[in-house]
Amino acid sequence: MTKTIAALIAGHGDAAPVLGAPGRDWLSYGALRALAGDVAAALYGAGVGRGDRVAIVLPNGPEMAAAFVTIAQAAVTAPLNPAYTEDEFAFYLGDLKAKAIVLEAGYDGPALAAAEAAGLLVLRLTVPAGAPAGQFTLTAEGAAGAADRAAPEPGDVALILHTSGTTSRPKIVPLLQSNVAASAEHIRVSLALSGADRCLNVMPLFHIHGLLAAVSASLAAGAAIWCAPGFDALKFFGWMREARPSWYTAVPTMHQAILARAARNADVIAEVPLRFLRSSSASLPGPVMETLAETFGAPVIEGYGMTEAAHQMAANPLPPRAQKPGSVGVAAGPRVRIAHEAEDRLIEGTGEVVISGPNVTPGYEGNAEANAKSFFEAEGARWFRTGDQGAFDGEGYLTLTGRLKEIINRGGEKVSPLEVDGVLSAHPEIEQVVTFALPHPKLGEEVAAAVVLREGAGAGEAEIRAFAGERLAAFKVPRKVVLLEEIPKGATGKLQRIGLAEKLGLVAQA
Asked: Minimal CA–CA distance to 164: which of 78, 115, 255, 92?
């Protein structure tokens, strides 16, 4: 069984295409393997090697995909959202204990400022003129001492991502080479991917969804990935015509934006028939699944994933089995069971969804308390608690019935309400704040905040939102701020985020 990222790309034909992009020639598997050797040499020469952590801050596209795949064959990758503020970069770079950072040639934004302040080695990525998609050179601005040049083994960390926790401090999720390889294989099998497939990727490649479902699973199959520079509903059908994909994967908000333009692009849909469409990272409304399937004349495969599982846990199966709207499908890789919500035991019926398998993280880094709450042993296996409540039907399809966690899922972007609380609490006129999820028809949930002002204060919603906007990435800024004299409390007197929108009489925001 494949256990490393290097092994994922090892067995495919030299000439087979692997990475494409708008207006660019295809990069071949042979060229990607050669690039991995060049990247390793550049890293080793700069003093970066096995076990060293390399933050990657690049725009979406084939170079980001290639950087992840190649750097992970020599060191530890830590992709970060390019939209972060300097304060956020400073936090994440420090928390990751990053040794180096990869930035585009010419970039001088907040990630560089934070990296320089932290004393990180800067590695500049340059794309040669006329190069095929994903081809780049890496140049170090300085050196960081000696490097361990041994190739990473299955038990070494390949990828580090943060996940928004129920504490204000995001949790560090290390994913091993073997976790990534296992998940890539699980997704390949569930989607029946082969060398004939081509994925149109519109997902950000600093997220587990794009890195694993679009990129790594395709590599496991010897398939190709055509990398868009992000998501743009206005350009999607033009990209589809150029890329000629057999599938794409996206979050529900993207699918809805694509559907809104589908009628006027019926010719492209007919000209480029898809084998299937995939949705994940947030709940896909049943009617949207049905309309997508009807519009594209192809099955819609909804997946259920999270960072700690190296993405996929369950998925609606391909035909001839049914795709059930409202269900996240059947176990698709790891074992998926139901556990008692308070006791460490497996049960039948409704309870907390738990998983066990080779794709599951060994545990949060430096967070014994979170690990004690999230993992338990039962029936000879180690189980991870997802924080989601659910139940299986008689055919083994899982339906999520509620949440046991306070995380806000804004169209696939996970937001820690306590992180937003911490920022808003620093406003001189705010006495008390509770950030909560506001139902939203397209995003599923939007970020909102209930605020009690200090006596005599006059701050308004716009000023509070602007204050947050200077300190947080845009997707974390509350879209609605509710000014109250008192925030409603639960029966025990505790402030309760879950259900607060309902308590305040707030309906879904368009």
From this structure: 92
